[in-house]
Specification:
The protein has 73 residues and is mostly beta strands. It contains one helix and two strands; from the N terminus they run αββ. This is Nitrate reductase.
Length: 73
């Protein structure tokens, strides 16, 4: 980060946000929200909500989510 700031990378066209890697945010469930896990909830789908931005006008084709630290997706 120090080199990026020293060389003003964030002001160069090749590093502006529309050319960075995909950015995404999950808005539901909320941060630190606890989801109950029981026989009823495991039989029903849970809808995650949020957004994904690819930059450069490119389409986001899929979003992968893990609930176990990356063991499964």
């Amino acid at each position: 980060a120090e080199l990026a700031n020293a060389e003003a990378w964030w002001y160069k066209p090749e590093y502006i946000i529309n050319e960075l890697n995909i950015n995404s945010v999950i808005t539901t469930p909320c941060h630190e929200e606890i989801l109950p896990i029981n026989a009823w909830t495991t039989q029903r789908p849970y809808t995650l909500k949020g957004y994904a931005y690819s930059g450069g006008g490119k389409k986001v084709s899929r979003v992968e989510v893990t609930l176990d630290g990356g063991e499964t997706w």
